[in-house]
Write a structure and sequence with these properties.
76 residues, alpha+beta, five-stranded antiparallel beta sheet, 39% strand
């Protein structure tokens, strides 16, 4: 699970479970501060979100995709 710490009104820092800083959510001047952008592990996702909640959920999905799948997990 990720933690988000407000830096200021247009920026949040992203931390992982071990309290390591792994990224940032921010609103860019290029978008007139209306869209949220995501940077995880120094890589920008290229996606833009109007809603902060959607941007946070997307950041969690980006981090979860980086985990390797268990080869013995066959599902239900």
């Amino acid at each position: 699970m990720l933690r988000f710490s407000r830096l200021h009104s247009d920026s949040f820092l992203v931390y992982d479970d071990a309290n390591n800083h792994i990224g940032e959510l921010y609103r860019s001047k290029d978008d007139n501060y209306s869209k949220w952008r995501i940077v995880i592990n120094e890589s920008e996702s290229g996606l833009k979100y109007t809603n902060l909640r959607d941007a946070k959920k997307s950041a969690e999905h980006i981090v979860m995709r980086s985990f390797e799948q268990d080869p013995y997990d066959v599902g239900c």
